[in-house]
Predict the 3D structure of the following.
Amino acid sequence: MAQCQLGLVVPFTRNCAAEFQRLLGSLKHVKSDVSFIVEPVLIEGHNLARARNTGIKSLLETCDVIACIDADLIIPPGLIDKCYKSVMNSHSNYWARMRDVDCWRSMFWPLEQKTWDEWKDAPLREGGRGSWNAMRPEEWIKSGGFDERCWGWGGEDDVLHETLAARGIPTFREDRFVLAHVRHEARPWPNRANENIAITKPTEWNWLKPNGHMTFFVTTICNRDCVQCSAARTKRAMPNYSMSRKEIDDFFQATAESNYRFESAVIVGGEPLMWPNLEYLVKQIKDSGRFSRIKMYTNGDYCGNLTDDAAECIDTIVVSQHDSPSRKERLVERFPDRAEVVDRTQFRVIIDHYLPGTLPANCCCGRCGYMYFNERVYICPMSSENFLAAGRNGNSVALHKGYLDKFMSVDRLNQPMCARCNSNSHVFKLVETVHA
């Protein structure tokens, strides 16, 4: 069992402090057999969905059930116990409805039962599906959380419920233990319910998990010309490319503005150890706090260029096996706990034609990988090679705030480029059969 049975995520703004304190006051007098904690989250940039997700993520490891509740509500007696029992027994979303009530700012706690009895005469509000949504951490992660493309107020709860239905998570509607929504002056926020619902149809995007892997293609310069190079076309097309510090700074600025987080950063080339900005990049990655780990691919020939400060930030160093074993061995000896040796003949490359019957792809290099190269973000680490092989551009975007948004509605495993990519195991098997 987690450290606490129920966690309450309460987003609030600075101009609703009185409502928030009223909610806290009511919670102090809640009589419940369920242990619970409150996780207040300040709403920034009018993005209620993001604030809710921030609170959910902070409670995933510590609570059996996580509920999102608005600050302008009062919790009725019995709701917390009923919610906890229902969610733990059904593995569903528990949605408690609400009714509008009039209330004074200075309240006396606990509320008398007759007050709740009087409020029961008020009609239930139609809609209002963001009032109280509660699930176990497993269901929250499966749901993907609230869609952060929503901003202003309205609609983000409707999108959540659509997504829950699409992902097979049932919703239990609570009509007995009903929340009291205290009438208040209109918020200085734009009502964007219709716009949010229109632009945020259910997607496979998961706002509660890191956004996959980001590959940094830092340079096309390399001292070798391996036959099995997975970046051969890119190197020929831009033989002197070297990612600048400005490109690095622009990436981290856009990533911070977008509030993206990634499972890992992967540094490739060319040969990264021939690139002058390696130490600068790895420190930026580490200091940003937006990546869980760092991996670098190298041929090991310039192992002397890897400074101790840069190496300290890199979790895994992948060294290709070739005809300079002494240099490879030096890296392995220097970093025995982090260096991995791979056979470069096993690197995946792009073939010259499309193979039918290979989609949807079974991608061996990660279904959620992206690449940053030459001021653009690509939908997968093999994109630039694929586009050059096909003689045209494809799924990539110029770096800007929200640069991954374009890819949310893309079926990543059914792209034409996947039918010519050896990282697709269906393609690899056919090619292997032909060459056998």
